[in-house]
Amino acid sequence: MTLSDTEAPTPAERARPEASAHTAATAGNRVRPARPSAKPNGQWKVDGTEPLNANEAWKQEDGGLEVRERIENIYAKGGFQSIDPTDLHGRFRWWGLYTQRKPGIDGGKTATLEPHELEDEYFMLRVRIDGGQLTTEQLRVIGGISREFARDTADLTDRQNIQLHWVRVEDMPEIWRRLEGVGLGTTEACGDVPRVILGSPVAGIAADELLDPTPQIDEIQQRYIGDPEFANLPRKFKSAITGHPSQDVVHEINDVAFVAVEHPELGIGYDLWVGGGLSTAAHLAVRTGTFVAPERVAEVWEGVISIFRDYGYRRLRNRARLKYLVADWGAEKFRDILETEYLGDRLPDGPPAPKPLTQGDHVGVHRQKDGRAYIGVTPIVGRISGTLLLQLADLLERRGSQRLRTTPHQKLVLLDLPADEVEEVVAELDELGLQARPSLIRRGTIACTGIEFCKLAIVETKQTATKAVIALEERLAGIDLPHPISLHVNGCPNSCARIQTADIGLKGQLLPDGDGGQTPGFQVHLGGGLASKDREEAGTGRTVRGLKVTATGLADYVERVVLRYLDERDTEASETFAEWAHRAEEEALQ
Fold this sequence. Notes:
Layout: H1 11-15, E1 21-24, E2 28-31, H2 44-47, H3 54-61, H4 67-78, H5 85-89, E3 97-101, H6 115-118, E4 119-127, E5 133-135, H7 136-149, E6 153-156, E7 162-167, H8 172-181, E8 194-199, H9 214-224, E9 237-242, E10 256-263, E11 267-274, E12 286-292, H10 297-311, H11 322-329, H12 331-343, E13 364-367, E14 373-377, E15 383-385, H13 386-398, E16 403-406, E17 412-417, H14 422-431, H15 440-443, E18 445-447, H16 462-475, E19 487-490, E20 504-512, E21 518-526, E22 542-550, H17 554-568, H18 577-583
Parallel strand pairs: 8-9, 9-10, 18-19, 19-20
Antiparallel strand pairs: 1-2, 3-4, 4-7, 5-16, 6-7, 6-15, 10-11, 11-12, 13-14, 14-17, 16-17, 20-21, 21-22
Helix pairs in contact: 7-13, 9-10, 10-12, 16-17
């Protein structure tokens, strides 16, 4: 595996369906509460800490944090062939390293070959960027590493990270030296650990911000990331914190999220959500109903991750995410355990955050609270390069800026730009392929890495999505869309590109080609989405039996269904694509 946030399954896991997944006609697979079982679930506080599978055994024998020393002192000197298999396929993840897919292996072999047969002797390296906050100096370092050690590759992820490819283990000591020299790193960028903390891309900048979450993100990062106490979780743990009313951190699909809200008596703080996640069995996060003051965020975060560590299900890895525990317990019990066992006092009740009034991707030109401007730009499907990063650093510094942000939507937000130079900057950005005023199709499209690098992928994604976007921009030119149409393209069932929460979500699979062979294609999900200015609350998409589209026919399908939506939508009610997709007859969605 390379870019996916989903662990590569063993052959036994590949053959066994999700224990709690079920097929719903309107929403695809979802988490449902587990049936009572006589077998232990591997909950440390209930069943003890005896390992119940091989992954739990090696994590207890030698945690992932310890492998850094071996990488620097043994493997970097001995090369790929010197790497211990358990380190390679397990502990390396704790330092942001996955082996990437060997070129030339088609998607039909993804589920049949063992990891060592799929993998190349090169790595994907995930650079951790908590809160998405970068300086131009840091951007130059990442760009330089990309050009020198990663064949000029770079991808923006929907977790605010930057990922590089073609990295050799021999080069890791120098790469770490350069990253850490400017305050960056790869610690716990992957693995059964607290992953990167999503933060509002306009933290401390936006004129309409409720509060700046940067101090809370920094406190969590400094206190807990790299702490052995939280370096052996049942599975990955995803966090998000925002102080912006657009709710711009996809909080509904994180294990823990803090969303800014104004309490009528206690002032501005956060609404606490837990238990979100997608993959092959979606579960949207639930509100605990609590109000968390800014000074208590780190303490509450520690309580939630501690519950996951102590009560999470470790016996079966396909049921080990926090969402399964939350589905079984419910929000009320989860809150009670958090308050009584981990915090020692009750949190105040709190109101929900109101519906967002602005788009959460921050694309376009906006006013900062200090009178300068920030510009959100769209690199197509997150694909960039080291060269582009260096060019962007040059552009920003010429304009007097030294800051930028990554976003959870594979976008970039450029800060501190002179308000009277905005149009000149927008023109320069266009020349770099970074559009501040993209089409609503380009703006809403994201894609995972796909078969190009990922060992779990079945089909190609980045180029397929890029070609579809360019074709759709030509075909839909002059047609006014009422809002961005989110098109999420995923190379396998694991939903790294969030297919269940897109207007049009595409799950990669191989389809019959009519001549006895197979061709790359997608199962289609329609009408999903997270809370936004166009949507009151999050919901997962609809699947229509038999609705599949080939990769070569993707643009044709999207054009057809979007035009049908525009023809049939209730304009008086300002009906969105998602609303129409859920009410439309199946024939209209074909």
